[in-house]
Amino acid sequence: MKPFLLGLSPTIENSALLSTETTYRLAGENTGNLAFCHAISRALGGDLNSILWDAPAPQIDAMGDIGVITMANQLGSHVDLGWAAKPLQDVKCKLVGIGLGAQAGSLQEEPEIPEGTLDWIRNIQERAPGSHPNIAMRGEFSQRALERYGLADRTIVLGCPTLFISPDKKLGKTIATRFNKTPSNIAITAGHQRWTHLSTLENSLVEMASSTGGGAYICQSPLEMVMLGRGEASLMSLESRNACRNYIAPHMSDDDFVTWSIRHAHSFFSAASWMEYVRRFDFVIGTRIHGAMLALQVGVPALCLAHDSRTVELCQTMLVPYVRAQDIASGITLDMLPDLFNFDPELFDQNRTKLAKTYVNFLQNNQLTPAPYLKALAE
């Protein structure tokens, strides 16, 4: 069976030649999307062709036998995927979904899922390659969100496919070995300038990274942040730039902020390039789960500052080190990192092996061939 990605491409080709608006759109308005698209493609042998969801059914069918849908936090009142459900009604190829999650303020909430999104899920489940579950969920919270609608039976819990990028069977041990209680080179997974309730925390992260040396500020979304990461702060409106400056470093003047962003802010349009860059750091910290995951996959200790149900669920499912952002909203300092980085390498590796087995079985049950390194992780 010939698989293909039904969703975003893992890499934005020729990104340097494209405008930031174009690259941002091609990345699905968050460059973190490229991380799990890269992970899914790698788990299936790499170099998979891709086509976007809104392509006509005949074009989708022409791509191959099984469309592997790159999913995200699409369960909740924040999005109605009725527009995506209709094209699938005419698709003849088989479908498998990976990475579906629910979005809520906390794990105690029950997300309301629009009927259009439910239709989208039904259309996917009806096109399973066999009788086994064909949608992999991010965690039990997301799976429970579907139970209310009678759609959980055709799903399994996997976490995020980014957990399985590295072939290192003892990845947890590698991470623990590299942990330095006084890191001298820190990268920040940048937040969102409209998360003003976390601005004091973000200020402290930037101060901490700057005090240890060069430091990096890796931007994923929204567009204004990605512009900062491409050295385009001077092209932004003063209003937009001030919103970013107030969130990141309110003590800086406008000129100093522009200079700072050119030196420290980065945006990536390839997960491979992102990982190659981040492996030089001692520690990675911030509110973006995929930024943390890419660091962990190259053995760099990372701490996710979980700010919603989505990030908490993923961290708990994969045993990724995390702290609830609300608990440290007043800010952190360098000497707090050893206590905050609560990481058990043995449990992490045991859990990763267990989830890898689930992943391999899931793929094989859906007539997909796992890459040899993934099968080795599951042994």
TrEMBL record:
UniProt entry keywords in alphabetical sequence: Transferase
Record has Transferase as a keyword: yes
One MF annotation (Gene Ontology) recorded for this entry: transferase activity
Residues annotated as domain Polysaccharide pyruvyl transferase: 68-309
Pfam families named among the record's database cross-references: PS_pyruv_trans
Protein name, entry field: Polysaccharide pyruvyl transferase
Organism: Azotobacter beijerinckii
